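Quick entry between incubations.
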Amino acid sequence: MFAKFKNWLKHHQEAGQLIFEQQTKLINGRQFTIRRARFTDISSIIRIEELIYGTAPWNANAFQIELERDHDRLYLVTVYDGQVVGYAGCSFNWYKHESHITNIGVSPAYQDQGIGANLIQILKTYAGNHGYPRMTLEVRIHNLRARKLYERLGFHQTNIKSHYYIDNREDAVEMEVKLQSRGENT
Ligand SMILES: CC(C)(COP(=O)(O)OP(=O)(O)OC[C@H]1O[C@@H](n2cnc3c(N)ncnc32)[C@H](O)[C@@H]1OP(=O)(O)O)[C@@H](O)C(=O)NCCC(=O)NCCS
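Done. Structure below.
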């Protein structure tokens, strides 16, 4: 136990900020930029959440706290024409050897073009290349569209968490994908 804690502490002392190099992706002839989310993106992310869910599940303060944790969180945004059109977040727990998708959303006008899949694929590759053997997430049991997308990206169901969501007591499906190391996830 103590040895594991020492490894965890060593990793975090050495880790510093998670580094992410900006990427571009051509989708249907349009060039999208995928970069790390900035504090100034929070209002755009919340606007997308309002469009998707009606009200944003996370407030600005929650996103601010997440973005501040730049040693074990990676929040990405997809930008088109200077506008944030999608976002996804991932937490990294070195002690549990687990990466976990915390949040993902794509502005309704930009859905069904591969932006969500691209964000998850980037996070999978990033986590695999940083030595994380698996990635997990939770999804509402009735969100069949998101579940189908995750399955297409290799995730499989591992558990059901009963009444997990506090707003409507909906069950959560826990999903997991095994990751491969550098060069094997693309
Ligand atoms: C779930 C969500 C993030 C997916 O994002 P997205 O950008 O629409 O997802 P993608 O476009 O990558 O994939 C969706 C479909 O588009 C299709 N698609 C992928 N690339 C495409 C392309 N270039 N052109 C047209 N269609 C494409 C895929 O086949 C996929 O269909 P399938 O999964 O039914 O087979 C988005 O729908 C969303 O924000 N939903 C509301 C919030 C939500 O449910 N979040 C998840 C919480 S766990």
